[in-house]
Inverse folding.
């Protein structure tokens, strides 16, 4: 029988971080495989998916909004020993995500055709894009529900379960894509519509797997019987954290879209260099993102338990680990830049430009850890408003406008763009670090302090019930 863990601050960071890292790495790798399979089927399909993926990512971002808010609320309640309140926050997030996703799915299925028509695509490209967006978007509530369930499991200290579910879902998606695109064993070739169907089917399977997992997890309390009595304050708290966080993510991704359009105007070589370096450097900053996600959970536990001083010290250690890992990785890539870049192209001008950009990345990539580790830690503590406002301003002014000014106005091209993005990461990072050092976050926790008498009684009853 599974042991009930009474103090989640004792969960090692590595136990939380490595499943997230594996999940992110696998998802990134399978995205490349997915694109490769589509390219073998039709270039029109690749073009269609390039467009549709922008809408799919936006939907995922909106669903994550609720999940992040719930995760922070759950971790702080668990740190404070308020298991029932943590359970109510989980139920509240599921209610919010389902209501929102049903509405959004219905809207997307109705407007998919007119929206795709705005882009004036070639007929085959438009058909593929419309087919995928209608089916995938119209049934996206499965994806939304899975996003919320995964977030709840991670917040309760079980990141391995979402990792395994997502691995199974990704393998099912790729296998289904192969069947629908290439028709082995006499299977009908369904094209992009089949790809959408396999994606949705994998999410349905994942939904069932999550249901089984929650039934087995004896330490997780989700009081579905109290669904009608959830206080409105729970919904307000989830959205108060989730909406600003989503605003920051949305701003960053819109900035990247604008920057990409600028790079496209600089010529094919600049665009190709950008694509190659992003493909390579994605694996450099992935550990920092994973550490940051785990750090946000850990800080929530510590702050909920009233152990802010311990949280303060540990976040510096988490940051140091992420910084060192990124620095080592980017130095290795810089040392072997020619053979690495040559895997993608033999164009000497692209190789030379990539070498210069990688020199800037020696500062850029380690500096990114400020924002992938310390920023989430601040949010885990409940310090959301300041971090979001400053991040949005910095991304808009330094990263986006700075990229235009240095790259286009001053004519520095991709070098100027990369320098502006590096300046943004370090500016935001230094400010976030100063914010962390100020200790202002120590007074911004979302939940009240723990009641040690009530906590002892609750844990005693739980342990007796579970035979611990």
């Amino acid at each position: 029988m599974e042991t009930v863990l009474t103090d989640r601050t004792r969960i090692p960071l590595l136990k939380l971080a490595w499943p997230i890292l594996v999940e992110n790495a696998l998802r990134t790798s399978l995205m490349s495989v997915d694109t490769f399979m589509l390219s073998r089927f039709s270039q029109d399909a690749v073009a269609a998916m390039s467009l549709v993926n922008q809408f799919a990512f936006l939907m995922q971002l909106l669903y994550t909004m609720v999940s992040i808010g719930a995760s922070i609320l759950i971790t702080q309640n668990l740190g404070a020993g308020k298991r029932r309140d943590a359970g109510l926050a989980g139920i509240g997030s599921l209610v919010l995500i389902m209501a929102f996703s049903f509405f959004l799915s219905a809207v997307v299925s109705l407007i998919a055709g007119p929206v795709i028509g705005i882009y004036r695509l070639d007929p085959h490209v438009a058909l593929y894009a419309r087919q995928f967006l209608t089916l995938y978007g119209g049934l996206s509530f499965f994806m939304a529900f899975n996003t919320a369930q995964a977030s709840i499991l991670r917040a309760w200290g079980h990141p391995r379960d979402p990792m395994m579910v997502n691995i199974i879902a990704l393998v099912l998606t790729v296998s289904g894509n192969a069947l629908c695109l290439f028709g082995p064993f006499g299977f009908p070739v369904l094209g992009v519509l089949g790809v959408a169907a396999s994606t949705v089917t994998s999410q349905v399977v994942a939904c069932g797997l999550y249901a089984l997992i929650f039934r087995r997890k004896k330490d997780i309390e989700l009081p579905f019987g109290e669904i009608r009595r959830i206080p409105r304050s729970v919904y307000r708290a989830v959205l108060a954290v989730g909406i600003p966080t989503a605003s920051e993510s949305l701003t960053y991704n819109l900035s990247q879209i604008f920057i990409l359009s600028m790079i496209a105007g600089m010529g094919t070589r600049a665009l190709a260099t950008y694509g190659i370096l992003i493909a390579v450097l994605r694996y450099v900053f992935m550990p920092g993102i994973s550490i940051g996600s785990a750090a946000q959970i850990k800080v929530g536990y510590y702050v909920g338990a009233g152990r802010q001083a311990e949280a303060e010290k540990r976040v510096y250690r988490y940051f140091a680990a992420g910084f060192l890992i990124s620095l080592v990785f980017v130095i290795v890539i810089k040392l072997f830049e020619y053979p690495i870049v040559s895997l993608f192209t033999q164009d000497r001008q692209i190789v030379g430009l990539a070498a210069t950009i990688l020199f800037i990345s020696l500062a850029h990539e380690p500096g990114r850890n400020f924002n992938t580790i310390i920023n989430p830690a601040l949010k885990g503590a409940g310090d959301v408003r300041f971090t979001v406002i400053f991040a949005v301003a910095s991304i808009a002014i330094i990263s986006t406008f700075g990229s235009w000014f240095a790259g286009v106005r001053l004519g520095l091209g991709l070098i100027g763009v990369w320098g502006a993005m590096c300046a943004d990461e370090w500016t935001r990072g230094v400010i976030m670090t100063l914010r962390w050092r100020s200790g202002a976050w120590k007074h911004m926790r979302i939940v009240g302090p723990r009641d040690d008498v009530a906590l002892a009684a609750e844990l005693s009853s739980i342990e007796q019930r579970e035979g611990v």
Q: What stands out?
A: The CA atoms of residues 119 and 329 lie 40 Å apart. The radius of gyration is 23 Å.
